[in-house]
Amino acid sequence: MREQTWETIYQAAATSQSGAERLIITHATLGPNQYLYARAATPTAPLPEAGPVLPPALSGPFAGSDFSLGDLGLEFFALAGTKPVEGPDAPGPAVLCPGKRQLPANFPADAVARVKSYIDKESGSLLIAEACDAKGGLIKKFSLHGSSFKKSQRPLAAGKDGNSNEKTGSHTVLKFDMPKD
């Protein structure tokens, strides 16, 4: 079987306080994501060429948002122990897919250690992903209110499409510019 790859590109314009940013994620069917990232040094500086991102930096925010580089690469789908579960924890037409990381001894207490992903049974689309720390405390929640979410007639979470940081109370909304065919 030949490996297939595709790219996702995220760009953020400069603000009055920070430089422009660009994140390129190459997804692969048979291997891990590859990340290239660039950030302009100042709001008026040009964007440098994107360079590789090592795994520890994947937890850093993109453009000051509630989304880490790893969130945008959907790294939570690659957590060990991910399996569909049906029952009281999977409301409505969704299945729950919990995943857990093997944590090194020096792992930060407030870092993401477990993710619960609610997947629409009909379409296979992600509806909600809840990132928790090693003690089970909710760190952030990603929700997508797309067509498969509306079909369910039973909302799984309130709020807008995006990522809510439960520790800081902030909320980031993503808007996508889809390429024209």
Q: How much helix, percentage-wise, in residues?
A: under 10%
**Molecular shape:** globular
Strand order of the largest sheet: 5-6-7-8-9-10
What is the chain-wise order of helices and strands?
Answer: EEEEHEEEEHEE
The end-to-end span amounts to: 28 Å
Radius of gyration: 17 Å
Instruction: Say how many strands there are.
Output: 10
Structural notes for this entry:
This protein has helices at residues 69-72, 147-151, and strands at 5-12, 21-28, 34-39, 51-52, 94-100, 114-120, 126-132, 138-143, 162-165, 171-172. The chain contains 2 helices and 10 strands, in the order ββββαββββαββ. The longest helix has 5 residues, at 147-151. 5% of the residues lie in helices and 31% in strands. Residues 146-160 have low confidence and may be disordered. The protein has 181 residues and is mainly β. The chain is globular and about 50 Å long. The strands form 2 sheets. A 6-stranded antiparallel sheet has the order 5-6-7-8-9-10, with no helix packed on it. Strands 1-2-3-4 form a 4-stranded antiparallel sheet, with no helix packed on it. Strand 9 (162-165) and strand 10 form a beta hairpin.
